[in-house]
């Protein structure tokens, strides 16, 4: 099992309070804390306030939005924990999307050198990806997740009812990470995603396909928690995707994480054709499918150098080389693929000309 310390339980439920009770009871009253963000606090927390108050759980609320995944917000959580008597045996419950679970997970894993935390993901992206697997972190210096830790939550409780209030753009964003899971490990999962109807969602079916996606994530995490080896598969699309996401932020035209990953996957599938013999016919089909869902992120040739510079900060890089995870075919991965600057620019040119 490599360097894994699989410890998180993934629970699927439509009765959140019942699942939570068992966890809260293991901690002394007054030692369980809640972190959430403003959207969830307004939309969903009123239904649970009485339950949390009865259980003696105090709450900190962080402003919603990716731009708040920053050190100042971590400070706010640390202050809240410190002022309310949080000790090493306390538990922090994180309710929100990937922004919140990354941020509050990071706060928990660093407070007093680490306390337990439990994730309740409320977006599709956080249910299939961000809340699972123990990557926590914040953006820093214009770079995605530049500072963070690897530590798994004690549990992840997935309730698809939360997705009923998600806007379409955020659903579509989470769907990109599911496409990624299909591409890197499970062609059947990819096929079951193709007919998904965003306008007419069957939540029971959605819960099933969320499970299939989480299974892919868990497989890689269980075998390589700290990303020394095959976990790099989960980063497919992100070398270029994070560069797009950071560039978009710099240019004040931010894009959602999943959209950036979809754009990145197209460029990295092109690299897969050139480096690993990925079938060109599959590249064309997948490119058209993803373009149809995600549209196109407009870039000009003058952005190439900045995108390349951003890729030089990717966490998979070694000895100054930009390392990609690429695909020889759907469902197969090739990690540590070092591409030349010229080839990376060719992939960006391919994307730009679509
Ligand atoms: N740790 C990991 O392994 C991992 C994996 C993938 C992505 N991420 C990170 O996750 C973040 C993106 O997460 P996200 O897409 O969930 O974004 P997010 O957390 O910003 O949530 C998206 C929007 O949905 C709102 N929202 C949340 N839950 C809602 C609900 N139930 N109903 C209505 N609105 C709701 C939020 O307020 C926000 O406006 C990025 O920072 C990305 O880097 C981390
Ligand atoms: O769990 C992983 O490993 C991933 O790479 C999942 C990604 O979808 C996620 O966006 C992750 O936060 C990216 O990590 P980073 O190490 O490239 O910052
Ligand atoms: Zn991602």
From TrEMBL:
Biological process according to GO: amino acid biosynthetic process; aromatic amino acid family biosynthetic process; chorismate biosynthetic process
EC main group: lyase
Gene3D superfamilies reported in the protein's UniProt record: 3.40.50.1970, Dehydroquinate synthase-like - alpha domain
Reported cofactor(s): Co(2+); Zn(2+); NAD(+)
Catalytic activity: 7-phospho-2-dehydro-3-deoxy-D-arabino-heptonate = 3-dehydroquinate + phosphate
Pathway: Metabolic intermediate biosynthesis; chorismate biosynthesis; chorismate from D-erythrose 4-phosphate and phosphoenolpyruvate: step 2/7
Domain 3-dehydroquinate synthase C-terminal: 174-317
One cellular component term from this protein's GO annotations in UniProt: cytoplasm
Compartments (UniProt record): Cytoplasm
One Pfam family hit: DHQ_synthase
Protein name, UniProt field: 3-dehydroquinate synthase
Gene name, Swiss-Prot/TrEMBL: aroB
């Amino acid at each position: 099992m490599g360097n894994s310390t699989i410890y998180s339980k993934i629970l699927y439920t439509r009765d959140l309070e019942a699942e939570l009770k068992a966890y809260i009871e293991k901690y002394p009253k007054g030692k369980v804390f809640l972190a959430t963000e403003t959207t969830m606090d307004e939309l969903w927390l009123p239904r649970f306030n009485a339950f949390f108050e009865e259980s003696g759980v105090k709450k900190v609320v962080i402003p919603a939005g990716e731009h708040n995944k920053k050190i100042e917000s971590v400070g706010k959580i640390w202050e809240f924990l410190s002022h309310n008597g949080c000790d090493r045996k306390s538990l922090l419950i994180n309710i929100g999307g990937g922004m919140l679970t990354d941020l509050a997970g990071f706060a928990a894993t660093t407070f007093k050198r680490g306390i337990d935390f439990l994730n309740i993901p409320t977006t599709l992206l956080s249910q299939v990806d961000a809340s699972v697997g123990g990557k926590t972190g914040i953006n820093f210096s214009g770079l995605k997740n530049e500072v963070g830790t690897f530590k798994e939550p004690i549990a992840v409780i997935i309730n698809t009812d939360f997705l009923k209030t998600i806007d379409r753009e955020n659903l579509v964003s989470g769907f990109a990470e599911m496409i990624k899971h299909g591409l890197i490990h499970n062609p059947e999962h990819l096929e079951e995603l193709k007919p998904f109807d965003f306008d007419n969602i069957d939540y029971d079916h959605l819960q099933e396909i969320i499970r299939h996606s989480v299974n892919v994530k868990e497989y890689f995490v269980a075998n390589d928690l700290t990303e020394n080896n095959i976990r790099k598969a989960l980063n497919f699309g992100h070398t270029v995707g994070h560069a797009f996401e950071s560039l978009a932020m710099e240019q004040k035209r931010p894009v959602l994480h999943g959209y950036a990953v979809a754009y990145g996957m197209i460029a990295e599938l092109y690299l897969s054709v050139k480096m690993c013999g990925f079938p060109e016919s599959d590249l064309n089909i997948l490119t058209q499918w993803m373009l149809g869902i995600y549209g196109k992120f407009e870039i000009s040739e003058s952005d190439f150098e900045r995108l390349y510079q951003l890729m030089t900060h990717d966490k998979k890089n070694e000895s100054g080389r930009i390392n990609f995870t690429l695909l020889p075919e759907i469902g197969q991965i090739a990690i540590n693929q070092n591409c030349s600057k010229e080839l990376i620019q060719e992939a960006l040119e391919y994307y730009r000309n679509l």
